Amino acid sequence: MTLCLGVLFFVLRLGLRSRKGRLAGAPPSIDLIRLHARLAKPAVVFVIFGFIGGGLSSSLIRNWSLMESFHAIVALVVVVLFTATAVYGRRAERGEGDPGLHGLLGVLTMLGSFLAAIAGFILLP
Q: The domain containing residue 8 runs over which residues?
């Protein structure tokens, strides 16, 4: 998950660079947007699989109840945010959505991800 979050932080930086250019009135960098989308799509899928894997691991291996930790609750919120960010990103990619909303969701998602990561440290053996 750490590697995946690192990739997604890089994706966020690409998105913020694209936003900065858009706000400055520059034409969108197609290469930058393509790289942003190409890296984000599989990384979001890995986050979802990581969330599922974490739930299975905690319940089957550690015999914990699902969603009993702060980490699990924050992770659920983050997975929902990642999904919403991906949906709005896809809409923006097609010219149907608001790239600003996609960006705001992306920033909130990464902040939540860092909170989930910090909350997960106490669960380590």
A: 2-123
